[in-house]
Amino acid sequence: MKLMNSSASLEERREDFPALGRRRNGMPPVYLDNACTTLVPRQVMESLQECYANYPACGGRRSRHWFAEEVSDRIEGNPDKGIKGSRRILAEFIHAGSENEIVFTLNTTHALNLVALGFPFRSGDVVLLTDKEHNSNLVPWLRLQKAGLIRVDYTVPDDRDLFDLEAFEGKLKNGRVRLVSMGHTSNVTGYTLPAREIIRIAHQYGALVLLDSAQAVPHQVIDVQDLDVDFLAFSLHKMCGPRGVGVLYGKKDLLGRYLQEEEGGGFVLEPVFLGGGTVADATYSSYRLLDPPECFEAGIQNYPALIAAGAAVKYVQQIGMERISAHEGRLNRFLTGELMNRYGDTGWFRIFGPQDAEQRGGILTFEVKRPNAVRIAEELSRKRNVMIRDGVFCVHSYFNERFGQGWTLPRSHDEHRMVYRVSCYFYNTVEECRIFLETLEEIFRERSYL
């Protein structure tokens, strides 16, 4: 496996990504869709290939042979061999107290649903969200509300689109909020919540906190113990890792040992899926589950991807999370300044979220409200291989509330509007941002917007 030079420049890091070496129409890709998914470096690909080539077997407790030991060593670790497994690598990455607090999932959505379906709600409980939740942190709660199991409530931002701690505390004062579940960093605006203060206030009123950190963990230092967060979910595919691997962090006492129904349950998260890999023993009439995290990881896992997840974490750690965050901030400041200088006074161009780029990380989402405002993302790709995202970014509720349902299908040509998102990562450059800006300007002029 190729070793990384920890002192390499970010420009040199680009050589690790085969996709950046591709050409179409003689031009390289300009990949600015990182909030959706990031590119994958050779080091992670080599980790996947090594597993499939050298030890393509089951891990866990299933088999006791050579190949199975190789798999288990790389996931669970083997101190005698000097191997630190992926589970511990991930635990240390988010500063968890124990690797047993790390549950492997398919992705962030899967992790959030494990909490929604396994949380011991009581009649009258409220789950409190923000107004900009991804569907993955909205629809599971709406389903429970529809079934009459909980009530969903929302807290709204202040007039600067920043989190309103006073309004948030007001929602908690009636004592019915059992769980606060919020997107740590918005995939629409890039704004990061004041999570520590939110968690402190929620705990004062007896509520637990789940953070959807899909857009936070890949971009900044996260310390779950310092935050005192109860549950936290994220995906590896948003941080140079393999697809199909996510993580649910849960405090040890909230995961706990699974309590059988005859024991009266308890205030612990219950496993949702049961079967192979979760069972310590079973008879025709009863069963006993393994301790966490195993009781949450049902069935054959994607072992190569779990191993590669550790390689992805090592990769971004060697770059440095502070360095990644600072670089994204520089790119966003540059883009924001250029876009506002060019279009800020047009009346049809608007940036979502806080207007200070420092508060939006690597995400810049903007609205174009002009006739024929659609398909700009396709033209960017066609003209210069510039890749950004358009649409609602799986946050239908926010845009429907803001623009009215059916806004993407306006009654007349003059009512067209579309929302576009540029999202950067450490391998993006100022030159790529310039290419995006120049191509966008060209499109605007061709459409007679300017």
Automatic annotation (TrEMBL):
Keyword Aminoacyl-tRNA synthetase appears in the UniProt entry: no
Instruction: Please provide the record's keywords in A-Z order.
Output: Pyridoxal phosphate
The UniProt entry, under Pfam families, shows: Aminotran_5
The record's annotation in InterPro entries points to: Aminotrans_V_dom, PyrdxlP-dep_Trfase, PyrdxlP-dep_Trfase_major, PyrdxlP-dep_Trfase_small
Protein name as catalogued: Cysteine desulfurase
Q: Does the keyword Coiled coil apply?
A: no
Q: Which residues form the Aminotransferase class V domain?
A: 30-433
Q: What are the top taxonomic ranks of the organism?
A: Bacteria, Pseudomonadati, Thermodesulfobacteriota, Syntrophia, Syntrophales
Q: Which domain of life is it from?
A: Bacteria
By its UniProt entry, which PANTHER family does this protein fall under?
Answer: CYSTEINE DESULFURASE, CYSTEINE DESULFURASE 1, CHLOROPLASTIC
**Signal peptide start-end:** none
Q: Which organism is it from?
A: Syntrophus gentianae
Q: Which residues cross the membrane?
A: none
